[in-house]
Amino acid sequence: MQTPEQNRSFTQLIEFEIEPHQQPALISALSVQTERLAQGFSGFLSASILASDDGRRVLNYLQWQTREAGEAAFQSFESGEQDFWQLIRAHRAKTVTFGSFQVMSSIERSHDNALHCNLVN
């Protein structure tokens, strides 16, 4: 039996391609924006900002309890005090790729060092 769609968490992935000298400033700006989203919107689960070794890419990973929570937060991100498009221009992103995903399976290590797998289908 399939799990209803509303019971699946929702993940947004945003990949930025930039010049290496822009990477630290973009990471800093995304950290501030991500913290604002986490504090200001219910449904936030987790976020990570990842930097490529070559300095040319940054990946912003945001996970939400529901698609609706993630989309509401992103709409705010687009029009907030430092809107998303301004952030892209300020850090001269060459390309920005957006992806939205529903979590179908996850695995994590617990405090007692056991592995726990969650299949959501």
TrEMBL record:
Question: Keyword annotations for this protein?
Answer: Monooxygenase, Oxidoreductase
Q: Which InterPro entries match?
A: ABM_dom, Dimeric_a/b-barrel
Gene Ontology terms, MF aspect = monooxygenase activity
Using the record's annotation, list all stretches that form the ABM domain.
10-101
Q: What is the name of the protein in this document?
A: Antibiotic biosynthesis monooxygenase
Instruction: State the organism named in the record.
Output: Pseudomonas fungipugnans
Lineage per the UniProt record: Bacteria, Pseudomonadati, Pseudomonadota, Gammaproteobacteria, Pseudomonadales
